[in-house]
Amino acid sequence: MWICWAIRGDDMNRFKTSTLFKTAIVLYLFIIIFPFFWVTVTSFRPEAEIWGSGALQLKGAAFTTENYKLLFKTPILNSLKNSLIISTITTVYVTFIASLCAYAIARLDFKFKKLLTVIVLATSMFPQMIVIGPIYRAFVQLGWTNSYYISLPYSNITLPVAIFILITHFSQIPKEMEESATMDGSSKINTFFKIVLPLAAPGIFTAAIIIFIGAWNEFLLSLTLNTNEVWRTATVNISFLRGQFEIFWGQVTAATVVVTIPTLIIVILFQKQIVSGITSGALKE
Fold first, then answer.
1. Where exactly are the structural domains of the chain?
2. Cβ pair 9, 223 in contact under 8 A
3. Which fold has domain 74-280?
4. What's the CA angle centered on 151, arms 148 and 156, to 5 degrees?
5. Is 94 in contact with 158 (CB distance < 8 Å)?
6. Is 247 helix (H, G, I), strand (E, B) or coil?
7. Are 162 and 207 in contact (CB under 8 A)?
8. What pTM, to 2 d.p., does this model score?
9. Please, are residues 178 and 198 in contact by the beta-carbon 8 Å criterion?
């Protein structure tokens, strides 16, 4: 009899633990999703109803697309084009450089390799306010402000993370495959591009997506270096949706939705590849 009660007690404990865990997950998802949900709802409400006593009431609220109509009369499309071009350029060259750096760290033996890895990761922790001054001064002297050259300093925030992801993937590739290719007369460069890169494709794809999202969401560098309205990125353009004495919150929320959609689509379409790319490099076989 007492055994039956013990089994029932274990089942009850498991049920309570499972229920508590599921409740915590639901609460966490609510905290994550609710801000985007409310921004989306607000983007369809008239400017007059965003504030006031009825701002938090959805029942009986008026909805309109006026905020989006007004938004697309601003240079938002040009800003989206700039963000797309800059993010694409950044993704291509940072992915290539990160692949070379990560392969060198993972495969080559040289002094202070661990120290170099630590330094690379440490650079991603520097506040942008520390480096923005020297970068701005260099860009002014070179005449590179208000241009797509802004993609160059974007490597400061994207390259360290990409290298960190790719090091684990290159480390997992069996050395025997490279040694076999070398014995067959293949050069190091040929082996890298024709054997190593294809095998590390999941990690490279993951790094490329993270680089693109990081470049797309960047704000401070673009605000500082591309001050001309023609060269503004989408994230910066949102901060200029204001008048002399007011902020157009309806247009701001609409622009937030529009700017978020591309990265949201990327994450939804490639979530399996992103997760597998990150986790596969974290496991040892």
1. 2-43, 74-280
2. no
3. MetI-like fold (1.10.3720)
4. 155
5. yes
6. strand
7. yes
8. 0.84
9. no
Return the structure tokens found at 53: 């006593």
Token representation of residue 120: 């690379």
Q: Taken in order 165, 264, 71, 52, is the CA torsion positive or negative?
A: negative
Query: What are the φ and ψ backbone dihedral angles of 247, each rounded to 5 degrees?
Result: -110, 135
Write the secondary structure of 103-135 as one string of H (helix), E (strand) and C (coil): HHHHHCCCCCHHHHHHHHHHHCCCCHHHHHHHH
Geometric angle at alpha carbon 246, from 241 and 252, rounded to 5°: 30
Q: At 123, list the tokens.
A: 């650079």
pLDDT tens figures, 80-131: 999 999 999 999 999 999 999 898 888 888 788 888 888 888 887 878 888 8
For residue range 133-187, list pLDDT tens digits in order: 899 999 999 999 999 999 999 988 899 889 988 888 888 888 888 778 788 777 8
Distance of CA 125 to the CA centre of its chain: 16
The three-point CA angle 81-87-88 to 5° equals 90
Among candidate residues 90, 71, 81, 160, the one with its CA nearest the CA of residue 119: 160
Backbone angles phi, psi at 112, to 5 degrees: 60, 30
